[in-house]
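Dock zinc ion; give full complex structure.
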Amino acid sequence: MDHSLFLILAATLGLILGSFATCAAHRLATGGSLTSPARSFCPACGHTLTWRENIPLAGWLLQGGRCRFCRARIPLRYPLSELACALFALAAATVFGFGWPFLVAVGFGTLLLVLSLIDLQTWLLPDVLTLPGAGLALLASTLLPHAHTLGIGWRAGLLGAAVGGGGLWLMAWAYRRIRGEDGLGLGDAKLMLLVGALLGPVAVPLTLFAGAVLALPMGLVAARRAAQEGEGTGAGEGLRTALPFGPFLCAGAAAFLLAGPQFLHWWLGRP
Ligand SMILES: [Zn+2]
């Protein structure tokens, strides 16, 4: 396939999947069914979206970020998610080229986006997504030919799942023993089970590291805002409760999927 055509198709696929992800996340987060109603609708007034309003990104821009009927503001996370998904698909197309690894990368990228959006809205990473996702990740590691960070083989997949799921479960257990309260959720452990099964054991500490680096400044901003609103009792308290960690782990995993080996080479100072 012509390369520039492939890139255009990849970005378009990313926009469509991003739109699907925001819709699926909203339905799962609000306890609705994934399949009914079949058409997208405005969450504020229930007006069914026409195909034109449904166009990712463009629909939002054309309507000035508001529902055409009730004028309710459509949250900025909708177009931002679509844009992020399109950029991820574009990057995956460049890294993997056309083929199964590209499709698997985009599929898991979309799943990570759905999980992030649900976690931001509900502070939960539903088992119904993370556990089958971990199974599919192991299957992908087993069946895919080795390509960049994917197709690592079933042994590395199992080891990664053990390090990711087991490691975070231990950390959550230790935190509860020492502090006498929940710090890390078990949802985070199940997410890392998935990440380890897909990307292997090396990806686990790097995903945690990237997640923490991304979460810290965002957490500080959120904690400061919470403190100004008089909610949190202190900066530490606010930092721990201001944001869920799942979206940052998802972003870290997506970054490793695209550029993990390059980052390792750069970090270890190898050419
Ligand atoms: Zn509306």
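Observed: The CA atoms of residues 41 and 65 lie 14 Å apart.
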